[in-house]
Structure formats: structure tokens, C-alpha cells
Amino acid sequence: MTDRPDIAQCADAATFRQWYYLKSELVDFARANGLKTTGGKFDIADRIAYFLDHGVPPTEVKKARKVTSKFDWHSAPLTRETVITDSYKNTQNMRRFMQAEIPGYKFSLPFMDWMKTNVGRTLADAVDVAKQIEAEKKAGKKQPDQPHNQYNAYTRAYFAHVPDGTQKELRRLWALRRTKPGPYVFSPDDLKLLNEK
Q1: Tens digits of residue pLDDT in 74-85
Q2: What's a Pfam family in this record (predicted)?
Q3: Rounded to two decimals, what is the model's pTM?
């Protein structure tokens, strides 16, 4: 059995990327080595990988998204004719509008992604898309897992394979799986880890 190395023990990015690290571990290493600690887990991991290969922090160009719209998604009245702007935010105001249109509505990642990529469309279009996403979900269509949700994807795959499994067993299995090199996708072979010491 190979023990997971501390990040500082990884000689290069390839070795580092074989292992699962908590975001807190990534932040600690980044901070100790003068790397930026902002952004998501994968952003920080990318900086660390660059640092391990090159010995210096990556030069980052600030990718500021230029927002041109002044529309206030927090307080402006919303109607089906409201045009989606580049300043779109998932606000309580938007939640109230969607729940008035679709009782019991809850935001979903596919819907939020759609809103951010459909500037110029109307909220009537958004309501139609939200209904379609909800219908697909009820019909059993699975949404693709987001790459940053490794634990969630692992959990779904575990319970699909072991329907009578327990959360306790899952957490133990996930903790054991993280001590091995990746990828961090559930495999029935992972169940053998429960028999190891």
C-alpha cells in the first residue's frame, strides 16, 4: 500500500495530481509557498502543480468579466419579459419569481449555468428551460457531475452499486480511498479497502 505523500513531498505536478487533497491542505501549502489562495479548489491545485513543475508561482492575468448591465437582480421587478443581462445573479428576488412561475422550484446547477450563458433571452425562456430540466430530472435523466464535486459523484456511484450501504460505511470508504492514488471515482473494487487494516 502506498501512503499518500504530503504536498511538499511531491516532486512534480504529475505526482501531486495522483492524489486527493482537501482544499484546506491546498490552501496551507499555497500560503506557505507564496501562492494565491483565492478561487476554487481546482484553481489552487493548478497553481500548486505549476509551482511544483517550475519552482515559481504562476503569473496570473486577472480575467475581469466586464459587466455592462446595471440591472439590479436583487430588487428590480421581474416579469416573463425581463431580458437576461450579463449582470445576472441567483438572488432571492429571482427565486421568488421562479417559485411564482413554478411552485416548489429550486435552483439547479444546469439552470444556473444556462442563465449565465443565455444573455439576451427572456425569463419566459428561462421558465421553459427550468421546466424542461425539472421534467428530465423526474424522468430519471442524471445531470453530469461537476468535476469539483468528487465526493458527491463518489457518493452517488457508491449508493447506485450498494443501495443498502450506510453513510458511515461510505465515509470510511471515502477516507480510505483518498489515501490511494486517483482517480477518485467509485469502483466496486473499492469495497475491498474496507477489509484492509
Answers
A1: 999 999 999 999
A2: SAP_new25
A3: 0.56
